[in-house]
TrEMBL record:
GO terms for molecular function: UDP-2,3-diacylglucosamine hydrolase activity. InterPro entries: LpxH-like, Metallo-depent_PP-like. Keywords: Hydrolase. GO terms for biological process: lipid A biosynthetic process. It comes from the Bacteria. SUPFAM superfamilies: Metallo-dependent phosphatases (SSF56300). This is UDP-2,3-diacylglucosamine hydrolase. CDD domains: MPP_YbbF-LpxH (cd07398).
Amino acid sequence: MEKCIYFASDFHLGAPNYSESRKREARIVKWLDFISPTCSELFLMGDIFDFWFEYHHVIPKGFIRLQGKLAQMADSGIKIYFFKGNHDMWVDDYFTKEIGIEIVSDELLIERSGKKFFLHHGDGLGPGDSKYKFLRKIFRNKFCQWLFSILPPRIGLFVANGWSSQSRLASNQKEVFLGEDKEWLAIFAKEQLHKAHFDYFIFGHRHLPLDINLFESSRYINIGEWINYNSYAVFDGTDLTLAYFEGNP
Ligand SMILES: [Mn+2]
């Protein structure tokens, strides 16, 4: 039996509060148990945590069941990738050292069973959103990160959790489809296709599960999020499918 590759993102663990997040974490762990027997590679494509900042000797409390499950999967031989999202780009080497997870900073181009994949969280791509693109440079700046890291965690995490609770997901607004000509990640994917062929563009960030045919045989799949959709993508060596764990709520 050919093993499968799984893609999921935007768990936003921590949001909107502790008890809701714990329920979602339990659902995610259940999903990981469900996929483990058939999983060869797992791509966690950003915003897994609503906020994550890793200090030199300190990590944020919580999310221990997810971390334990990922460690178990990695120990059993499943390769795990963790993409930096706009909410958790401040991962450092903790998950790599502890679990063996590979951290991905920007796009990752892979080929599996003869299919070419363009993978990215999705933030800062395509037209528009210049304010975020500017902030992203600051957030990803080594010196700015160092300045934040010397704040005591009590202050740093207080500021950051306040900031992340303002996100649209925390206020539980569902995203709506803008039409293919206005979906900026579809526009971005089409631009990339002028330069090189990809069979699949897989992004998160949009918080809306999408499966859009681009030119020829190329598709743009958005893997949605786990507050409203429990959505993920699975590649079985032949086909890529957008799926919903325990049904689309
Ligand atoms: Mn997100």
